[in-house]
Amino acid sequence: MAGTIELLKSASLKLSYDRLSTETSLEARLYRNSRTFPATYELDLQLWVKLVQINPSGGNFWVVDADNNPFFIRPWKPQDWSNFIDAANRQADLWNDKFWLKPPNSVTELDIFDMNNGLWMRPYIKCTLTTYFGEVPGSFGLRSPHRVVEVANVDPSKYLNPGSFRSHALLYSEKDATPSVATWPDNLGVSHSFTQPVITHEIGHALGLQHIGVMRKTAFCKVAELNNQESNPLQKTLFGGGWNAAYCYGYGEAADMADDIMGAGQKFSADDAKPWNWSALTMFGPGFWTTMTAYPGFNFSAVERNRIRR
Ligand SMILES: [Zn+2]
């Protein structure tokens, strides 16, 4: 049996900026691969994040980072740029094969009847991500990028640079190719070291995800949210910065929270599968899609279907 890879559904998502998501857009494609039996399904999110060099020019030798601190920059060399793009691709790829979705009871159109055991089988849909950082193939069908991100090449020889550069969703630096390390206390005061591939985290924002404490609505992150006025004395503490406060990254929470990719670490939890969930809801309408963060070991689960046929 030859079989095919078939595009079943596609959707363009536009997300607003609120507690549920950052302002962003992305494409979603649902494929069925019937080269295998049973067929396998894949929900691929497609994101065009155009990376643009910032080079010193016209007497401008510095950029300001996420904390509004000025940093001296130097020109990009072609080899360094190409290394950076390679690192960006590797870090974006970490979003692949982390989640599987099971359709809700209301969605039966993907089910397959298995004649061998007389059962209806419901697929687990593999979640994948395709990211383009430069130009995109014509078949992609988009004229402009979902997001344009500038990348600074911070000059480490300038001693005036104030500490380490902090990237944000629209500004990366050459250092993001190297994972960042934070040593933070958990909820019991025990200190842990968390390592994060920074571009992977920023791609999470590009997919519409907020920080882990925002998504999980923690009390500390909520305090940061409510005290996000410039004159508020809490701004000079770890509560400062609203949804970007350390507490919204999982500082002082159980360690698995700060270790999340949308915290200060590198783990992927069901919360981080939201962009795939939103895409499935856009394609199929309301319903509860079950998220799995580990491959269940087989492609389908047997389901009870209403025996009454119309
Ligand atoms: Zn962030």
Structural description of this entry:
With 310 residues, the protein is α+β, with helices and mostly antiparallel strands. It has a domain at 5-179 and 286-303. Helices cover 17% and strands 29% of the residues. It has six helices and 15 strands. Helix 1 packs across helix 2 (198-206). The longest helix has 16 residues, at 78-93. Residues 201, 205, 211 line the site of zinc ion.
Structural topology:
Elements: E1 5-15, E2 24-33, E3 40-54, E4 62-64, E5 70-72, H1 78-93, E6 100-102, E7 112-114, E8 119-123, E9 125-132, E10 147-152, E11 171-173, E12 180-185, E13 191-196, H2 198-206, H3 212-215, H4 219-226, H5 255-258, H6 274-284, E14 290-292, E15 300-303
Parallel strand pairs: 3-9, 3-10, 10-11
Antiparallel strand pairs: 1-2, 2-3, 4-5, 6-9, 6-14, 7-8, 8-15, 12-13
Zinc ion binds at residues 201, 205, 211.
- State mean pLDDT (0 to 100 scale): 90
This entry's quaternary arrangement is: single chain
Q: What small molecules accompany the polymer chains?
A: zinc ion
Individual helix count: 6
Structural class: alpha+beta
The geometry reads as globular
Main sheet makeup? 8 strands, mixed
Helical proportion?
10-25%
Show unreliable segments: none
Distance between the termini: 31 Å
Proportion of residues in β-strands: 25-35%
Task: Give the H and E element order.
Answer: EEEEEHEEEEEEEEHHHHHEE
The count of β-strands is 15
User: What is the radius of gyration?
Assistant: 22 Å
